[in-house]
Structures are given as C-alpha cells and as structure tokens.
Design a protein that fits this description.
The protein has 413 residues and is α/β, with parallel strands linked by helices. It contains 16 helices and 13 strands. It has 2 domains: 300 residues, 3-Layer(aba) Sandwich (Rossmann fold); 104 residues, no CATH class. The chain has a 5-stranded parallel sheet. A 4-stranded antiparallel sheet has the order 8-7-6-9. It is globular and about 90 Å long.
C-alpha cells in the first residue's frame, strides 16, 4: 500500500495565459500556506488535458490609458487538449501587445522577458505554462504536476478501466481516450466502447485520461491527498462524488476553500472613501444603478420617480377634463412627451454636474468588477506584479494569506 511521509496539499486549475485568472494564484498560495503550516508538501496540478480553449485564450487588463482591454489569441485549436496546443507567433504578438500597452514601470521589462522566454514558439502551451509557473513560484517549495506524464497515466489506468466497466449501458463514460493531441469522449453500448462517431475503441491499448468526475479520484489515489484547495464550483461538485470515491475505494481529500480577495489599489481605496462605499455595495448594486443613486444623492434628482409622478399628475388632469365632457387623450399623450423632454433636459444638466462622480464610480467597477465579474476571475497576476513589486508581489500575498480576509490593499498611498 502506498504511503505518504508528509501530508500532501494539492490544488489545480486549467491552463490560462500569463498564469490564468487571479484565483489560480490564490489557489496555489493556499496549497503552499497549508503545506507550510503542516510541514507538508504542496502540489500544483496543471490541467493540460482540458480542451475548452475559448475559456482560456484571453487576457483582460487595464492599459496605460486606464481603459479596460481584452486581447484574444484567436486561432483554430483543432480540438486539441489545451496542453498540446503549440505556442505560435500569434500568441507572442498578443503578449507583446499586452506588455507594450500596460503602464511602464521598473518591473515591466523583466516581466516581459520572463513571459516571452516561457511562451516561446516550438513549445506547447502545457510546457510554456509549466515553465511560467516555475518562475512565478520560484523560491517556494512547490511541485508542479502535469497529468499527461506517463507515470500518472499508467497509475490511473486501472481506475479508469473500472469506471468504464461500471458505466451504465448507453451512457458516456467518465473518462476520455487520447486520439493524438485530442481527447475523445467514450460511450458504452452493447458491451462495447465507442467514440462519438460510433467507432469501437480498444480501451486496453488506448491512452486514457480522467474526466471531471474521475480527475479528483485519480488525483487523491495518486497523491494520497491530505487536502485539496478548491474554488466554489469545485467544492460543489466534489460534494457530489462521495459514492464515486467509495466505489473506487479511494479516500477523498479534505476540501479547503481557497482565499477569495479583492485587491484594492491606492487609487481605488481613495475613491471608495470619497464616494462613501465599500466592496459590499459594489456586489449588491450594478454599475448603472449605482450611478443613478449617486446622481440622486448629489442632486436630489430621480428620473424614474419623477416620470412616474408626472405621469400620474397628467392622468389625473386628463381624467378631470373628461369629467367635464372634454376629449383630452391626445393632450395627455403630448403632455407626457413634453414633460419627459423637460425631465431629460434637467437630467442632462444635473448629470454634467455629476461627471466627476460618474467617472469615479465607473473606475471602481472597472477595477473591482470588470465586465460585471469578480476581479479575481478576470485579471491575471501580471497586471499587479507590474505595478506593485514584480515577482515579489506574489510573496507579499503569500505572507498575508488568510482565508477569512476578503480585501487586500496593494502599494502605498
């Protein structure tokens, strides 16, 4: 029976450009944090087998002109597992545009050189991602693991074959087989295993890789994982896999939620103070509604309320005129149009007075909820490293790692 000399803390994530979204960094730092506390081992599982290229081929950031920008590596992935996609000149061009359009700091040149050294044409995205992770977490005691390794594939084979055998007739198996650089779904029909096109597959001679429902089982069997650092979505599906773990006689790891924080830059902190808001307000209220409320607070003007009130006044007036025997429907419609025009003129005037507040509010949402999403799901670590310390910025977050913290201030005022 396999045994671990020390407790192993694992986290994992699909590949992403420039290290992927911020929460990937938080997950890795979580594994390192808990491993250090327990004098254990930290493992970062780079999910090279995932094939959802359109989910990972973009970079979002705030450029030197303070605009929210998106760059896309727009190629035909040919259905390859993401780890097998070749790095090409198009990706190099995307990375160059990123570094050429962010604010230039003392760290920009070094970070650009590091990224372009990793994402070199001739490498696969999996190789480039592993190289980048090694540099980002240099100095940490972190094992970077690629599940496409021969050793892991051979170890997982018996689990995946058992999973295939237990699959109900007519159902898709919780595994894939590799067809060159592509992973293919497997279906069970009349005791045979077929691909999506109905071609029979010899699982015994095929290279098999886990699916979402078997990855954690193979992972915990291989590493004898003490704990897995997980995001909210992972926590949800891992709770549903109890019977699967039991079937394969694998002990599931303890699941520890990853840290989830908003990085608050000095300029963002100042604007929050000026507007009298905190992050909870940003989460509860969308940007447009927040702007409306701010204009209302500043000017006492509420367009929606004023339109409803004026419509009611007009309706009452038309009703009284009708009581005298006058037909006033056309007058009512014209009055409502004219009043809305007057309200619009007043709103425009008050909005001009409120331009500063509008800009500040838009700036908050740009930094904290870009594209209406949590910051950690949109930006990558390079944007912040460039502004606040280079690779040392990762160490700063690690030293302040705390699962109960929801905000982390960056830089100095």
């Amino acid at each position: 029976m396999r045994k671990n000399e020390v407790a192993t803390f694992v986290t994992g994530q699909q590949l992403g450009l420039l290290g992927g979204p911020l929460y990937t960094t938080y997950k890795v730092l979580g594994a390192l944090h808990y491993a250090k506390r327990s004098k254990g081992r930290a493992v970062y599982w780079l999910e090279t087998n995932d094939a959802d290229f359109n989910e990972i081929n973009q970079i979002h950031y705030i450029d030197s002109e303070k605009n929210l920008r998106s760059l896309k590596w727009d190629i035909d992935s040919k259905g390859y597992s993401c780890g097998n996609i070749p790095v090409d000149e198009k990706l190099v061009s995307v990375l160059n545009e990123f570094f050429n359009t962010i604010k230039v700091t003392e760290h920009t040149s070094e970070l650009k050189e590091m990224a372009l050294d990793c994402y070199a044409p001739g490498r696969t995205l999996g190789e480039a991602s592993a190289s980048l992770a090694a540099k980002l977490f240099e100095g940490f005691d972190l094992e970077i693991f690629d599940p496409s390794s021969v050793e892991f594939i051979e170890f997982s084979r018996h689990i995946l074959l058992n999973e295939a055998e237990s699959t109900s007739e007519g159902e898709q198996c919780n595994l894939f087989y590799m067809d060159g650089d592509r992973r293919r779904a497997v279906f069970k029909k009349e005791g045979k295993y077929l691909d999506r096109g109905g071609v029979e597959i010899d699982l015994l001679s095929s290279e098999l890789v886990p699916s979402l429902k078997t990855r954690s089982i193979c992972q915990d069997a291989y590493f004898l994982t003490a704990a897995y650092i997980a995001g909210p979505g992972e926590i949800k599906y891992l709770k549903e896999l109890g019977r699967n773990f039991k079937f394969h006689n694998v002990k599931p790891a303890e699941v520890i939620p990853r840290m989830s924080i908003d990085l608050v830059e000095p300029s963002v902190k100042r604007v929050l103070g000026k507007l009298g808001n905190d992050i909870s307000d940003i989460d509860k209220i969308n940007k447009d509604e927040m702007i409306r409320l701010k204009i209302k607070d500043l000017t006492g003007f509420d367009k929606k309320k004023l339109v409803l009130r004026s419509d009611k006044i007009v309706d009452n007036l038309i009703s009284e005129l009708k009581d005298t025997g006058l037909s006033a429907d056309k007058l009512g419609k014209k009055l409502k149009v004219d009043i809305k025009e007057l309200i619009g003129i007043k709103r425009k005037s008050d909005k001009e007075k409120s331009e500063s507040v509008i800009r500040q509010t838009e700036m908050l949402y740009k930094h904290l909820r870009p594209f209406g999403k949590k910051q950690e799901r949109v930006f990558n670590i390079f944007y912040y490293m460039n502004l606040y310390g280079g690779r040392e910025f990762i160490k700063q977050i690690y030293e302040r790692y705390d699962n109960s913290v929801k905000l982390m201030e960056t830089g100095n005022d």
